[in-house]
TrEMBL record:
Membrane topology: Multi-pass membrane protein
InterPro entries, per database record: ABC3_permease_C, FtsX, FtsX_ECD, FtsX_firmicutes-type
Pfam families according to UniProt: FtsX, FtsX_ECD
Keywords annotated in UniProt: Cell cycle, Cell division, Cell membrane, Membrane, Transmembrane, Transmembrane helix
Source organism: Gallibacter intestinalis
Stated name of the protein: Cell division protein FtsX
All copies of domain ABC3 transporter permease C-terminal, residue ranges: 172-289
All residue ranges annotated as the FtsX extracellular domain in the record: 59-150
Spans traversing the lipid bilayer: 21-44, 167-187, 218-243, 263-284
PANTHER family, alphabetized: CELL DIVISION PROTEIN FTSX
Function: Part of the ABC transporter FtsEX involved in asymmetric cellular division facilitating the initiation of sporulation.
Family assignment from sequence similarity: Belongs to the ABC-4 integral membrane protein family. FtsX subfamily.
């Protein structure tokens, strides 16, 4: 414990002595984590929207005109159940459709309570037994008498999946580049401290100090820099995301019938990711500096 406290005090002293380079390191890591956080925000919400639609991926919903009676819909249901490609057919009343929409709207579902009448149509939901048959079933469903519209999400899901993969690849490339840059900056900061304490380090080695006893303050310095960067960047990204929810949350809900990922959920996961990345970058930058500029392997 005494060794740890000594190393911690030395690390804090080193940070105080090199305020300029410490600030540069914190700024570099923070900027990297903020950019990564923005990619994370986009990807998570695209994935959420895609998963919401995927739930209906092998479902084809057939909406009926208002003059189609419940008895006629039940007859159509029985007929469609006989199709070879169909697994199940479920009748969805306009009341049930409204309840589902309220659930998808989440906390804003109460807004639908003010409707003077239910504008949603009755429908049947056809589940196909294989996704490659969905196109064929959808085309057949369009010919049902009394059908007003057929809702099939295949094209939308494929586009969302493609966009998600593109953002994921871009995020990985940007993240690797920024991690390398941040690690180099942290390494240079620690290097200055090593040079400033070179005489002291030589004396410590002569009196028998172990390699890890010498390394510890520098390692803690890098970890502290990374931790500070993680905390700062987490707060900034949370504020940005809160602003995004406030500005476009309603529009996204209206367009996709799904809300943005809650701020609390995203912030909780993001802060741990940032802490892991920030501390790792700081520690790794410190180790690189020690291996290159000290003979303490």
């Amino acid at each position: 414990m005494n060794k740890f406290m000594y190393s911690l005090k030395q690390a804090l002293k080193q940070i105080g002595r090199n305020k300029g380079m410490t600030f540069t390191s914190v700024f570099a890591i923070t900027a990297m984590l903020i950019i990564l956080g923005l990619f994370f925000m986009v990807i998570v919400n695209i994935n959420t929207a895609a998963e919401t639609i995927k739930n209906d991926y092998n479902n084809i919903e057939v909406f009926f005109k208002d003059d189609v009676t419940d008895e006629e819909i039940k007859t159509i249901q029985a007929d469609v159940e006989e199709w070879d490609q169909v697994d199940t057919v479920t009748v969805r009343t306009k009341e049930e459709a409204l309840e589902i929409l309220k659930i998808r709207w989440g906390d804003n579902g109460y807004l639908l309570d003010g409707l003077s009448e239910n504008p949603l149509p009755n429908s049947i939901v056809i589940t196909v037994d294989a996704l490659d048959k969905a196109d064929q079933v959808a085309a057949q469903a369009e010919k049902i008498e009394g059908a007003e519209d057929v809702n099939f999400y295949k094209d939308t899901v494929e586009k969302l999946i493609s966009a998600t993969k593109g953002f994921q690849i871009a995020a990985i490339i940007v993240m690797i580049f920024l991690i390398i840059v941040s690690t180099v900056v942290v390494s240079n900061t620690i290097k200055l401290t090593v040079f400033n304490r070179s005489d002291e380090i030589v004396i410590m080695k002569y009196v028998g100090a172990t390699n890890w006893f010498i390394r510890a303050p520098f390692l803690l310095e890098g970890i502290i820099i990374g931790l500070i960067s993680a905390i700062v960047s987490s707060g900034i990204v949370a504020l940005i995301y809160a602003g995004v929810i406030k500005v476009i949350g309603g529009e996204v809900l209206a367009i996709l019938s799904t809300s943005l990922v809650p701020l609390g959920f995203l912030a909780f996961n993001l802060v741990w990711i940032f802490i892991a990345l920030g501390v790792s970058i700081g520690a790794w930058g410190s180790m690189i500096s020690m291996r290159r500029f000290l003979d303490t392997k």
